[in-house]
Amino acid sequence: MRQKYYLPFYLVILLPFIASCGSKEKEYDATGVFEATEVTVSAKSTGELKTFDITEGQMVESGVVVGKIDAYQLQMTASQLEAQKRQLGMSRNATDSRRLDLEKQLSSINQQISNAQRERQRFSELVRDGAVPQKQLDDINNQIKVLERQRDATRDQIRSNNASLAEQSKGIGAQMDGIEAQRKQIADQIANTEVKAPLSGTILEKYVERGEFVTTGKPLFKIADTENMFIRAYVTSAQLQNIKVGQKAKVFADYGDGQKKEYEGTVSWISSRSEFTPKTILTDDERADLVYAIKVAIKNDGYVKIGMYGEVKF
Questions:
Q1: With helix as H, strand as E and coil as C, how does 42-93 read?
Q2: Can you give the pLDDT at residue 15?
Q3: What angle, rounded to 10 degrees, do the helices at 134-191 and 72-128 form?
């Protein structure tokens, strides 16, 4: 008679669980930490920080003025330069006006000569006919000679003045160019007294307060683009052969105690160099000594925080 064997009851209960554990697919291919593009904004000017209305955790838009450094002395210098420029402009206008007056005077003399010559022609005919005495014709001829001498003198004066006025105008133009260069430089310095957010994001740290004296290069605050974040993960060379830039992936934000939130990600960067496995990172093959860093970009909905752990599934 064949003897029958029976498994203990606890093995019957555990067998399905053991089988399922042995066949269960791993939920992630790599793990890492969420990061964001961070920028430390420094002062571009020296002076008292007149306004600085930001708080840590505040969201700001790119280009928004969040602070203002004292610019009083720069503004006074700009006003003085504007006054000098206006004065030089008036001098140039006066120079042009003198040149125009001489040209008008010459035009008037030429017109008088032309009129006198027509009168001389008319009186010459009258003298031949005996209608007027010769003296009247002689007077007209003398008048024409006087006008011609005035014309020649005016021409000489115009030529002389043109040379002199050209030098003056050239000098004035050079001065105005120099003042304009200074004005643009001061305008740029005044613009640098405005503290602006270089990108849209969250204020992470604030290093100074309103009323403090800051110098050029002093850090003022740190901002991060928390809307466009990425997870930096590490993969083995075996995994790397199946990963490329632009590839889609699932990213999970790990809140602990099994709480996760899924995001659609895109591989945005793959390191070209291997490195030893960071102590805080687990890979699919924990025996691997050398791994490659990758970045998977996600669109943050406000729940992912910098430094939070996450998982990537390709």
A1: ECCCCEEEEEECCCCCCEECCCCEEEEECCHHHHHHHHHHHHHHHHHHHHHH
A2: 42
A3: 170
Q: Whole-model pTM? A: 0.65
pLDDT of 292 > 80? The answer is yes
Question: Does the pLDDT value for residue 294 go beyond 90?
Answer: yes
Distance between CA atoms of residues 147 and 166, nearest Å: 28
Q: Is the Cβ–Cβ distance between 66 and 197 less than 8 Å?
A: yes
- Of 308, 297, 299, whose CA–CA distance to 270 is shortest? 297
- CA–CA separation, 32 and 36 (whole Å): 13
DSSP state for residue 125 in the 8-state scheme: H
d(CA 185, CA 246): 44
Model confidence pLDDT, tens digit, residues 37-90: 999 999 999 999 999 989 999 999 999 999 999 999 999 999 898 888 888 777
Question: DSSP character for 283?
Answer: B
Predicted confidence at residue 135, as pLDDT, reads 83
Q: How far apart are CA 142 and CA 134, in angstroms?
A: 13
Closest CA to 140 of 159, 155, 125: 125
Beta-strand ranges (E) seen in the chain are 30-42, 47-52, 59-60, 65-69, 194-196, 201-206, 213-214, 219-235, 248-256, 259-276, 290-299, 309-313
The pairing of beta strand 219-235 with beta strand 30-42: antiparallel
The predicted-structure confidence for 86-122, as pLDDT tens digits, reads as follows: 887 777 666 666 667 777 788 888 888 888 888 888 8
| CA-wise closest residue to 33 among 254, 268, 238 | 254
- How far apart (Å, rounded) are the C-alpha atoms in residues 35 and 146? 93
| 297 Cβ contact partners less than 8 Å away, ≥ 6 residues apart | 228, 229, 230, 265, 266, 267, 268
